[in-house]
Design a protein that fits this description.
The protein is an alpha+beta fold and about 160 residues long. The protein folds into 2 domains: about 70 residues, no CATH class; about 60 residues, no CATH class. About 40% of the residues lie in helices and about 10% in strands. Strands 1-2 form a two-stranded parallel ribbon. It starts with 11 loop residues before the first helix and ends in a 23-residue tail after the last strand.
């Protein structure tokens, strides 16, 4: 499945960089130090996607939260393979619950059930709590100026 961003004059790679930076900011605490492994994104010759994303996050936080970032081919990284597996399971479960597709007894459903158990029994819907942070991208939520995604607000502890 290929996703095309909203029609805009901005280059596609920049849209993905902005979206990735927003997702990272939503998942990382300001004082955490993290390394990012991201799926490869095509950019112009003089642009390094990982440097752009790292710079966007660190500038917004006003510190060096992202200490390293690397773009990898997802076939070469177990971490990215796991991320793809989780993202696919979330998509499958949402389509199944909406009655759009999916069989509750299929091998994909078995993966979904195992992930739900591993995540502490939470549904694979938008959720933030404990170690689970799932947020859907909904183009309808973007403001007219396309200034960014709305992420799940952090709850006061």
């Amino acid at each position: 499945m290929t996703h095309r961003p909203l029609k805009t004059e901005r280059p596609t790679w920049l849209f993905y960089a902005e979206t990735t930076a927003q997702l990272v900011r939503g998942a990382v605490n300001r004082r955490e130090l993290v390394s990012l492994m991201m799926d490869d994104v095509s950019t112009p010759r003089d642009v390094a996607f990982e440097d752009v994303v790292r710079g966007m996050v660190n500038k917004r936080f006003g510190n060096t939260s992202v200490i390293s970032a690397a773009c990898l081919c997802s076939h070469s990284s177990d971490g990215l393979q796991m991320a793809d597996l989780v993202a696919s399971a979330i998509g499958f479960e949402r389509r199944r619950l909406a009655g759009e597709s999916g069989n509750a007894n299929s091998p994909k459903a078995q993966v979904v059930n195992r992930l739900k158990a591993a995540f502490g029994g939470v549904d694979l819907l938008d959720h933030r709590g404990g170690r689970v942070n799932i947020r859907s991208y909904d183009p309808g939520e973007l403001p007219a100026a396309e200034t960014g995604l709305r992420l799940v607000a952090k709850k006061a502890v």
